[in-house]
């Protein structure tokens, strides 16, 4: 596939010889007993046999539509059975789903369709008050498939028809093919696509299921978006399928929705981001639901404070596991039998014995053991390049193929990593990643804005919130420049996902600069922390 950077042949040979890469395809992950429940979604309950059949029939439907091996299909579905069926159907015919988040809007989805040259777009009809069909109308794709009332488009249900005919024999994908595209949190003006091959992603989910002790008795509650790597394959939905357990889809992580499902389905495992974990710690003290089935709470996506991690066993009655992962590949897990100290205070250690880790200083030299530096990594399930992004790849990888994570870590003698911060120009808002540059570019399109700098503002609940520092054009000054409300309306109008909207806007006359003349975001953050966002002391909106 053009735009895809393969692993060099010596590493490929090694990963195969050492058993990391096999021949299993993503379409073959359903390994449960046919009669056991694979999926619970709303009122729907599907056994392994039923899910398998639905995936096959829908695969035939996509083939009838003309979707073929090697095609890309942008999929934007909430946590519904349709997500699971569509994902399995596409990977079975070797068409790679490009997994957009339900929160994405025109700006993100259009870009993904263009970059991936997607043949089709699959969405919900409406969700959370948003009509995906109206967005779909102007997307540059041949086919739009809608779960629900499809209006002028193709209904997903119409792809799932048993015609009685033998479906055209699909061209079986190769394990080295790209199976799925995940989205990068992004550090540049535009989001990046992460190609995950069948064999690297199958290893990712199987090895994760093993480390997390998943079995056929696992009942996994999905509260994060199913399209996110954590919920999909760490071990996630696919890791459960590979071990024969049951997946229960929840619409969100709100205790009102999640707790009754835990009680009703006797859920044993759930993956959450720190703000949800903290919400649950609060809610569990007064909620009446029986959460006693819960055995493991996986927490990741952003740093989980040691003090909160320590509360989980007593308050929620289950073990806690910290997960420091990335859609690009590398996963770190605290192990189920790690001493409490490591579980509470570290973000885990690499999943695979073949994961290579380097912690380096600004010159790319390894720091002394135990000191903080940037984490570089390569391994059997970490990408070697973003899709169709040669210039960005030249910066994001070392010449010997290590991915520069942009995360600052400290490595303990046990191999466990402690995340100490970040070097990349990104905001981690409770696990949602926001590229500062992408948001700045949107803000710069505002007629009253001369310059913009986006920084993270420490927040006890979200870890960080987003603050946009703005220099307003002189002509706009008499009105005082755009306030937060106006900025949000402006971004909504541009079709930007709401989680990227700033939480706060500060108007300033000029930006502090580094000695080389770059905007000093460190200084901006320090001023915010000190409560004097503008040196001149102008107001907040
Ligand atoms: C997960 O994946 P992404 O791609 O949304 O974000 C990756 C970035 C990491 O580079 C790091 O900056 C941050 O999110 N991060 C954490 C963390 N887990 C992720 N920072 C501190 N502590 C943690 N535990 O977020 C993701 C993917 C798979 C599993 C879990 C999380």
TrEMBL record:
Keywords: Ligase. Gene3D superfamilies: 3.30.300.30, 3.40.50.980, Luciferase, Domain 3. GO terms for molecular function: acid-thiol ligase activity. PROSITE patterns: AMP_BINDING. The keyword Ligase applies. InterPro entries: AMP-bd_C, AMP-bd_C_sf, AMP-binding_CS, AMP-dep_synth/lig_dom, ATP-dep_AMP-bd_enzyme. Coiled coil: none annotated. CDD domains: 23DHB-AMP_lg (cd05920). Residues 31-387 form the AMP-dependent synthetase/ligase domain. Pfam families: AMP-binding, AMP-binding_C. Residues 438-518 form the AMP-binding enzyme C-terminal domain. This is 2,3-dihydroxybenzoate-AMP ligase. It comes from Actinomadura rubrisoli. The lineage of its organism: Bacteria, Bacillati, Actinomycetota, Actinomycetes, Streptosporangiales.
């Amino acid at each position: 596939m053009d735009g895809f950077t393969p692993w060099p042949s010596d590493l490929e040979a090694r990963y195969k010889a050492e058993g990391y890469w096999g021949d299993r395809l993503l379409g073959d992950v359903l390994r449960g007993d046919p009669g056991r429940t694979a999926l619970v979604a709303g009122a729907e309950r599907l056994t392994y046999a039923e899910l398998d059949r639905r995936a096959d029939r829908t695969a035939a439907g996509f083939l009838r539509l003309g979707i073929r091996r090697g095609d890309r299909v942008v999929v934007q579905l909430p946590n519904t059975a349709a997500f699971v069926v569509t994902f399995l159907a596409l990977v079975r015919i070797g068409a790679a789903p490009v997994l957009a988040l339900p929160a994405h809007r025109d700006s993100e989805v259009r870009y993904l369709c263009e970059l991936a040259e997607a043949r089709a777009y699959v969405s919900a009809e409406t969700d959370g008050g948003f009509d995906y069909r109206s967005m779909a109308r102007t997307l540059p794709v041949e086919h739009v498939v809608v779960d629900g009332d499809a209006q002028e488009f193709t209904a997903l249900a119409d792809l799932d028809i048993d015609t009685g005919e033998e479906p055209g024999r699909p061209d079986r994908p190769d394990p080295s093919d790209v199976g799925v595209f995940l989205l990068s949190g992004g550090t540049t003006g535009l989001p990046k696509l992460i190609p995950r091959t069948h064999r690297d992603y199958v290893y990712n989910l199987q090895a994760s299921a093993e480390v997390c002790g998943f079995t056929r008795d696992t009942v996994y509650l999905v509260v994060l978006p199913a399209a996110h790597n954590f919920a999909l394959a760490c071990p996630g939905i696919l890791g459960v399928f590979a071990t024969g357990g049951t997946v229960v889809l929840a619409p969100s992580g709100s205790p009102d929705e999640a707790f009754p499902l835990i009680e009703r389905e006797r859920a044993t495992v759930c993956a959450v981001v720190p703000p949800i974990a903290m919400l649950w710690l609060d809610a569990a003290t007064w909620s009446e639901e029986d959460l006693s089935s819960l055995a493991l709470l996986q927490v990741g996506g952003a740093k989980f404070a040691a003090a909160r991690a320590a509360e989980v066993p007593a308050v929620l009655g289950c073990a806690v596991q910290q997960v420091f992962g990335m859609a690009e590949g590398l996963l770190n897990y605290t192990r189920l039998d790690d001493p409490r100290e490591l579980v509470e205070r570290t973000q885990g250690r690499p999943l695979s014995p073949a994961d290579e880790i380097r912690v380096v200083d600004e010159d790319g030299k390894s720091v002394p053991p135990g000191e903080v530096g940037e984490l570089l990594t390569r391994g059997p399930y970490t990408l070697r390049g973003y899709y169709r992004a040669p210039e960005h790849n030249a910066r994001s990888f070392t010449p010997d193929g290590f991915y520069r994570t942009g995360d600052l870590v400290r490595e303990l003698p046990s191999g466990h990593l402690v995340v100490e911060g970040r070097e990349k120009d990104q905001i981690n808002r409770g696990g949602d990643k926001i590229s500062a540059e992408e948001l700045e570019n949107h803000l710069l399109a505002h007629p009253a804005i001369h310059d913009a700098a986006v920084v993270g503002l420490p927040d006890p609940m979200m870890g960080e919130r987003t603050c946009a520092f703005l220099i307003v054009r002189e002509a706009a000054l008499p009105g005082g420049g755009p306030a937060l409300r106006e900025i949000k309306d402006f971004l909504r109008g541009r079709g930007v996902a709401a989680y990227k909207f700033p939480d706060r806007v500060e108007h300033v006359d000029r930006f502090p600069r580094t000695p080389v003349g770059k905007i000093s975001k460190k200084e901006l953050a320090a001023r915010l922390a000190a409560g004097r966002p503008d040196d001149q002391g102008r107001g907040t909106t």
